[in-house]
Amino acid sequence: MKIGFIGLGKMGLNMVHRLLKDNHKIVVYNRSKEQVKEAEKLGAIASETIKDLIGKLEGRKVIWLMVPSGKPVDENIETILPLLQKDDIIVDGGNSYFKETIARSKRCEQNGINFVDCGTSGGIWGLKEGYCLMYGGNKKAVEYCEPIFKSLAPENGYLYCGESGAGHFVKMVHNGIEYGMMQAYAEGFEILEKSQFNIDLTAVSKVWQYGSVVRSWLLDLAHLALTDDPELKNIKGYVQDSGEGRWTVQTAIELDVPAHIITSSLFNRFQSRQDESFAMKMLAALRNQFGGHAIKKANN
Predict the structure, then answer these.
(1) Is 178 a residue of the active site?
(2) Considering the entire predicted model, what is its pTM?
């Protein structure tokens, strides 16, 4: 199958590589030319512009977007739409907010273009392990794209979730769950690290991989991180979020779902970015005021 692929970041380039290994023909475009050259070395067809990319595709066109959520998706769609023919397909493989996906799908439909939302999980390991794909949109359009899904995913690793927005909705909740799981591992390992016992955290992370009820791929990754840096001395405790956790919490509120763990894990990421927390200062001040509890003076 011949596919136009826009966006060659950490995941995008590996996805192109996996598709090429399964004998698809891939025409690529990326704002940075270095990644285009890397894709060319793998066997992809380079293009100078999006217009050039689309011109190198014959028949019914499939354009896969692997760009950051928000404005970059909209900018690419606006560039692509006038260059496509009726019934061509745009796939958004990034982590877009499902409500924005629904709006984009309607805009594409007005131009006779199919818009498929495909939540993609697998990170930098996807090239080797395959990507878990959760997608939504017009049923006939997604069926046409199935050879792509089949090449990117491991066996049983792709699923049609329903109408437009359903794929990104499922991926959003997936990432919200991921936040909670990561937070639980983080807290558990800190309890071990601060205990009176001289516990080998690397060894614990390894033994938990065998038969334990908490074994998972995230635990495998924890073991790799601890193997590289047993005390995590080279890592600053600053944790970003890419949006999906926030969207999951917002959606939980809208649906009256008490998502305590996911919400708490999101707020913990916010807290990790504070060198000095005014809220924590206020807590200390209140304890001192009502109970005379000792406070630590700030170093000026």
Answers:
(1) yes
(2) 0.92
